[in-house]
Amino acid sequence: MKRIFFSILILFILSACSNGENNDTTEEEILDTKNVEIPSIIFSSDKQNSVIDEKEMKSSIKTYLDTSEALYLASYPFQGMIDEGKGLSKSELEKLDQIYKLTKENDENFSNYISQNTLPEGYLKESERISRYITGINGILYEINTMLNQLTDDIEKEVIPSVNIDLINKKSDVVNGREQKKIEEFLERKGIDTKAFGKNSLRKSE
Predict the structure, then answer these.
(1) Can you spell out the DSSP letters for 182-195?
(2) pLDDT confidence of 64, banded at 50, 70, 90?
């Protein structure tokens, strides 16, 4: 989690200093970010005041977690560039912004779904835990994305934006290895096979 935070912080520092331009990007790096495929489908449901059966609930959790993982994977090439101390071009920032917006929408849709419907017995508490955990991780991205949308004037003035450290610290209460373990045990117990938290997942909590 710390690595993600500092990586994104570097993004804004580099972007502000370069004014959104990056003339030193190599051909390989351009290909890495250019070929990023942003998921076209996220979790969504128009159900309200409905009784959700277990089969649908399992499918909903799987879709939500799989989409969350896919969105994070889409952002990863950009984070790799940031970790190497390279700035992002305007088009790359726009693509990253799109990923952040879809991530937020995915989280909000799932949160509304579990709060506005009657879930199967034994699913409400753990679904809320999953929602808090994933939204907690992504809360860092939400904060950065908000600053991204307010950056135009500051960049022109060569002002580096500040980061809401209090918001970051609050996420530690719900984003930790203990909470992740409880989620993984629940998923295994219910037989929900998801790409999130698996061997190839890049979002395993430290």
Answers:
(1) HHHHHHHHHT---S
(2) very high
